[in-house]
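Subgroup meeting minutes
Present: P.N., E.W., G.H.
Scribe: E.W.

1. P.N. recapped why we're keeping a running log of single-chain structure predictions: easier to compare across weeks, and new members can see raw inputs and outputs side by side.
2. G.H. added today's entry (274 aa).
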Amino acid sequence: MLLEIKGLLSTIDILDICDIIIVAVILYKLYELLNNTRAITLVKGIMVLLVLTMVSDWLGLHVIYWLLQKTVTLLFVALPIVFQPELRRALEHIGQGRLFVRTSLLNIQEARSLVSEIESAVTRMSQKKIGALIVIEREMGLDDISSNGIFIDGIVSSELLMNIFIPNTPLHDGATIIRGKKIIASACLLPLTDDRTLSTELGTRHRAAIGLSEQCDAVVVVVSEETGTISVAEHGRIYRHLDSEQLKQYLIPLFAQKSSAVRDFIRNWRQGTK
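Output recorded in log:
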């Protein structure tokens, strides 16, 4: 066995090593690109089907193996259609030289400063009863959502957020997407929830916030145009009647820590409302 390994290693030269490294980097970057869209869930589903196909073949389950094999074949034929937006975006990234650009993480001071800007704008809009829909991107990217809006790529500030949601302006309708310290796009269309059990008090903004949160891990801040109520939607549920301090406690962990801190806030907030 050792002799076979040594013989195999002796056939590998420096070009082979460079070849392997380049392919690994490209595959990783493609994964990062897909990870910035909701399409990553489809990729995970395909990987599960591939594993099940290999397991069924190993166990000798011939009928299941045949069905899975045909299903996987059809999926690979459909991939260019399903991932058309992602493929187009990947080519754009390569053409613009952005494939290997990395985003920086926020430290706690930057996170607090950023949340302060968002909280200030949301509080002022709440007081003036200006409707708003602010989406905060997390681990699952929203390039497919932001692509249907107006590209902005501006640093988050309370003044900019207020300007975006001023009534009767071009960017007022739709959602604003925040990624890290930047506003990526505004006037974005969000999918509406199909949940018919929701209260009739919830309008289109709230239903759009819940609808997006059902499909990904984004957190959506909503300001009601009718009542000025501040709400937050996450994982298909909406938490209403938050004040400015509660909003800060909710948002800071999204930019500075893992999502477990958010879970703790939700648990404490729900206990406090009982």
